[in-house]
Write a structure and sequence with these properties.
Elements: E1 14-16, H1 20-24, E2 28-33, H2 44-58, E3 63-67, H3 73-85, E4 88-94, H4 103-110, E5 113-118, H5 120-123, H6 126-133, E6 139-141, H7 149-155, E7 169-174, H8 178-186, E8 192-197, H9 205-213, E9 221-224, H10 237-250, H11 259-271, E10 280-285
Parallel strand pairs: 2-10, 3-4, 3-6, 4-5, 7-8, 7-10, 8-9
Antiparallel strand pairs: 1-2
Bound molecules: pyridoxal-5'-phosphate (PLP).
């Protein structure tokens, strides 16, 4: 992405997690710290937005319109990337206009994003939504969370930042599944991709992932649905304690929506011998910590 490229750093992007119990089981765990790439266009969002924004610039698009929640990593990344690219950005939020904008939405506005609040009934009505979108000339719509074939294509790059051939398992958080598809498309045949869904019982994922994989249906992936902690953006004190411990031990910040659940899942899976001895795990830290801004202050150590 033009302009943004020079703001990206690849320093210390691979982190080994030292753990004597894992050593005794012969399990190696490395983390690909995509959260370190950029302060705002964090993690997988950088890769998902790359192609849509490049295409927008090439085809004379003026305004990118998308949607997200009150603490959306996708919205703030889009706002920043559009700002850097000289594009207008509009964020549609499926909610009442709040009395006070969340910190995330305030930052979106500061980055030049126009916010529109639509009640679910209006948002979910395709015609009403389309009408709203069409009031913007030369616009490009990006689905919630950046779900798209282009987004997945961009995510293929994640596995070429460092040499990833030696890993037997690649693990990622899953929202829309776009990142997981990119990993499946880029992985070697001997590698298994494991996706940890942050949502409760979102079994429709299997089909939305297959749709993005198009004809490449042989990509080996496994979705785990039992680490959602009650649902999207839901958390427990056990999760918070775990995230704080992870930070103290490894200086690894995670979020309550996605990555905290992924690391919790990995620890549980290793403890219950899910991975055979000599497995080499690469956990893709998918970035964005916006969800943590919804917590009371001092909940987290970072
Ligand atoms: C958006 C996001 C995800 C979800 O990615 P998908 O490609 O939609 O599955 C995972 N982790 C973090 C930190 C995110 O911000």
């Amino acid at each position: 992405m033009i302009k943004l490229e020079n703001e990206i750093t690849y320093q210390h992007i691979l982190q080994h997690l030292t753990n004597s119990e894992w050593d005794s089981k012969n399990i190696n765990v490395d983390v690909l710290r995509l959260d370190k790439l950029h302060a705002v266009v964090s993690g997988n969002k950088l890769f998902k937005l790359k192609l849509p924004i490049d295409k927008a610039l090439q085809t004379g698009v003026q305004t990118i319109i998308t949607t997200g929640g009150l603490y959306s990593n996708h919205l703030i990344a889009t706002a920043y990337a559009c700002n850097a690219a000289g594009l207008n950005s509009v964020g549609i939020i499926k909610a009442h206009h709040p009395i006070k904008l969340t910190a995330t939405l305030q930052d979106c506005v500061a980055l030049g994003m126009e916010l529109i609040f639509m009640l679910p009934a209006a948002f979910n009505d395709a015609e009403t939504l389309q009408e709203k979108i069409s009031t913007y000339n030369n616009n490009l719509w990006i689905d919630m969370g950046g779900y798209s074939v282009d987004g997945a294509q961009g995510c293929k790059e994640i596995l070429s930042i460092v040499d990833t051939k030696k890993y037997t398992h690649i693990v990622t958080a899953v929202g829309t599944g776009t990142t997981l598809v990119g990993l499946c498309l880029a992985a070697a045949l001997h590698q298994k991709i494991i996706g940890i869904s942050g949502m409760k019982g979102n079994y429709a994922l299997q089909d939305s992932i297959k749709a993005l994989l198009e004809n490449n249906i042989h990509a080996p992936f496994n979705l785990l649905h039992n680490f959602h902690f009650g649902g999207f953006a839901k958390y427990s004190t056990a999760l918070i304690d775990f995230m704080n411990t992870l930070y103290k031990q490894h200086q690894l910040p995670t979020d309550i929506v996605y990555t905290g659940k992924v690391f919790y899942a990995i620890c549980t899976l290793i403890n219950t011998d899910y991975f055979p001895a000599h497995s080499k795990l690469l956990i893709v830290h998918t970035g964005g910590l916006q969800g943590n801004r919804s917590l009371p202050t001092n909940t987290l150590l970072f």
